[in-house]
From TrEMBL:
GO terms for biological process: methylation. This is Release factor glutamine methyltransferase. Residues 146-223 form the Methyltransferase small domain. Its EC number is 2.1.1.297. It comes from Martelella radicis. The gene is prmC.
Length: 316
């Protein structure tokens, strides 16, 4: 993955980091491979979980290189600006800022997404939601010709945009409580060529929504409030709290969505949701009480329950 819009202008404004290599006068600046190895060693010493991977993605991202170029251009010498940019980024990672927050963007479902302070960083687990929802969306498009979906709490827009990119007959409405998130989602739709099929509205869940949809999709906050402080610093200190906190039992958002789904789900429509690893039964019970039946569930790569898909009980 190659990023053309790096955060290097921000990074270079930072004060000289203690991590930076400081070659003596007349000594060549570090090579690309040298910078990578120094970063990986610093991350390992700091106890980061994936030091080599973090170093590879951080260095390549800051310098605008592909991972292939990281290997093939390892002997290339870095100039002072490149070294300073990498050093500043490494300092931020050592302070437990996530790699992709530092870079300001990341890949999701083969697409590029900008991040902002108002958005969650889209994660691989959420790709399971897109992968699971797509066959249902495609089937609806074949039946109807055109389909409408709504992404509740869209954040970066990753879910809606990935679905639009893979289903040309779909149009999406993306909602979020944060104007900044919707601004980011609109920018990401433009970057990925689906801006003409994505509409946005600011509000909590269905509060500002009118009409019915063939698919309702969401990755809502589902962390138990009391557990937020136990999360890794990369999450609790950098992801927006509103996108994490699911209330006392982690299920507040599911109750709010289920309460209004009947007003907004089209005939033969489906609801596709990401869930916490231990929430399948509880979320199923919430939607069952509102007249919906569990049609499918899917596990993530770690073998944990991650996605549930509901239909109207009358159609199941």
């Amino acid at each position: 993955m190659r990023w053309s819009m790096r955060l290097s202008p921000i990074i270079r404004l930072a004060s000289s980091p203690s991590w930076a290599l400081r070659p003596a006068e007349g000594v060549d600046v570090a090579t690309l491979q040298g910078l990578y190895r120094k970063a990986a060693a610093a991350f390992e010493t700091a106890g980061l979980e994936t030091p080599a991977e973090d170093a590879r993605h951080l260095v390549s991202g800051v310098l605008g290189l592909s991972l292939t170029e990281m290997m093939t251009e390892g002997a290339r010498q870095m100039d002072a600006d490149e070294e300073a940019a990498v050093a500043a980024a490494v300092e931020r990672r050592l302070a437990r800022e996530p790699v992709y927050r530092i870079l300001g963007a990341r890949e999701f479902y083969g697409l590029d997404f900008m991040l902002s302070a108002d958005t969650l960083e889209p994660r691989p687990d959420t790709e399971i939601l897109v992968e699971s929802a797509l066959p249902w969306l495609d089937a609806a498009a074949k039946r109807k010709g055109k389909v409408r979906l709504i992404d509740l709490g869209t954040g970066t827009g990753a879910i809606a945009i990935a679905l639009l990119k893979n289903c040309a007959q779909a149009r999406a409405l993306a909602t979020d409580i944060a104007d900044g998130a919707l601004e980011t989602a609109r920018a990401n739709a433009l970057i990925n060529g689906v801006a003409d099929r994505l509409d946005t509205v600011c509000g909590t869940w269905f509060s500002a929504v009118r009409g019915k949809f063939d698919m309702i999709v969401s990755n809502p906050p589902y962390i138990v409030s009391d557990l937020i402080e136990t999360l890794a610093p990369e999450v609790k200190d950098h992801d927006p709290a509103l996108a994490l906190d699911g209330g006392k039992d982690g299920l507040d958002a599911y109750r709010a969505i289920a309460a209004k789904t009947g007003d907004h789900l089209a005939e033969d429509g489906v609801i596709a949701l990401e869930i916490g690893f231990d929430q399948k039964d509880a979320v199923t019970a919430i939607f069952s009480e509102k007249g919906f039946a569990l049609a499918q569930s899917h596990k993530d790569l770690g073998g944990n329950d991650r996605v549930v898909i509901f239909t109207s009980a009358r159609k199941s």
